[in-house]
Amino acid sequence: MSRLKKLVGTVIVLGVAGAVAGWALSAPVRLDAQAVARLGPGDAARGKRIFYAGGCTSCHSRPGAEGDARLQLAGGLELKTPFGTFVPPNISQDQKDGIGAWSEQDFANAMLKGVSPSGEHFYPAFPYASYARMKPADIADLYAFMKTLPAVAGKAPDHRLSFPFSIRRGIGLWKLLYLSPEPVIALPDGAPDKVLAGRYLVEGPGHCGECHTPRDFAGGIEKGEWLAGAVAAEGSGVVPNITPDGKSIKDWSEADIANYLETGFTPDFDSVGGSMVEVQRNMAQLTPDDRAAIAAYLKAVPPRPNGYPARKPGS
After folding, report:
1. What's residue 32's pLDDT?
2. pTM for this structure?
3. Secondary structure string (H, E, C) spanning 38-54
4. For domain 183-309, which CATH number applies: 1.25.10, 1.10.760, 1.25.40, 1.10.10?
């Protein structure tokens, strides 16, 4: 009996120790003083470019918004995933319902660390795992531009998640596995500046890998299948493979890709469709050099076979 008591006691001690360690490891981590110092004063004119590269309107404007209404970032779009339904929040300049009361440092912690001003983890449906690769100066510029946008009253609905996904603290452990500022693709020494610039835009603010890359059981990106295409997060349809082996753009030139991002037309004069419509709208706001850089990077990434199961004929 004493041996059983010792065994039970050991299990309890180990369980408590594991819980304490898990609690400590899952704690939100904010930017250090050195990173905060690199933010500097932002420039709204430069921030407009980052705003469109980041695709903020795609998720945070009201569903179906057109024209200037796309800059009213009230949130409300529903993102249905295997983990539950995520609803992008109001990120307008409303002091109560949006982020109008956030400081530049609050904003940078959200973008680079996925941590709210109150010290909670944001869910990675907000693609900070990509934004973590952004330059602090670009974050400051984006913040400055966001301050020029209208305030819109009204909170977006809450996420609808079941246990255990409703426990935000566990996201801290997810971050230990998947949150890194390092580039996904290691380019060779002497890689052209255009390709390097494209890597930054695609892997960072553009967060293209968030949709175009398969995910593992925990929802983390499979970096070994970078941009190889994936089952759509909503569970129906696929997001295409955009590596050099991907059928969708395999035969496209850099100029073809850049033109598609600007006009929405393929080399065969088909037009952009689906969720890519919003993305292309944003890409059209970038400079020709930006779109050329994105195209050069997409031609330089390692070719991969499709990262999603083959579809049955007619599906």
Report:
1. 87
2. 0.88
3. CCCCCCHHHHHHHHHHC
4. 1.10.760
